[in-house]
Write a structure and sequence with these properties.
7-stranded mixed sheet
């Protein structure tokens, strides 16, 4: 599975961005998708995840109520709608695929930079 993230940019606090992650390759399989982020000097952290059907969704406490993860399986794409952005959301955002059901270990996109100015 190859993952291509896009949609990052520079925004002011309080504004919104939508990230996209397009999957190619092993797209006939059903698997969970997720978003992670890594701020400068910090470890990569979980942001959100969504099951194949969209029936199971999880968020980090820091983004609950502000971010929404969704997916369009017909387009092999997962989205992260980010509203009410804060400077502390500044990070490189990565999408990942849990292809084998063993966690987000092996399949990662290249990352897209999100910068939120105060």
């Amino acid at each position: 599975v190859q993952l291509q993230a896009s949609g990052g940019g520079l925004v002011q606090a309080g504004n919104s961005l939508r990230l996209s992650c397009a999957a190619s390759g092993r797209t006939s399989s059903s698997y969970r998708m997720g978003w992670f982020r890594q701020a400068p000097g910090k470890e990569r952290e979980f942001v959100a995840a969504i099951s194949w059907t969209g029936g199971r969704i999880n968020y980090a406490d820091s983004v609950k109520g502000r971010f929404t993860i969704s997916r369009d399986n017909a387009k092999n794409t997962v989205y992260l709608q980010m509203n009410s952005l804060k400077p502390e959301d500044t990070a490189v955002y990565y999408c990942a695929a849990d292809v084998d059901g063993l966690g987000f270990n092996s399949y990662w996109g290249q990352g897209t930079q999100v910068t939120v100015s105060s």
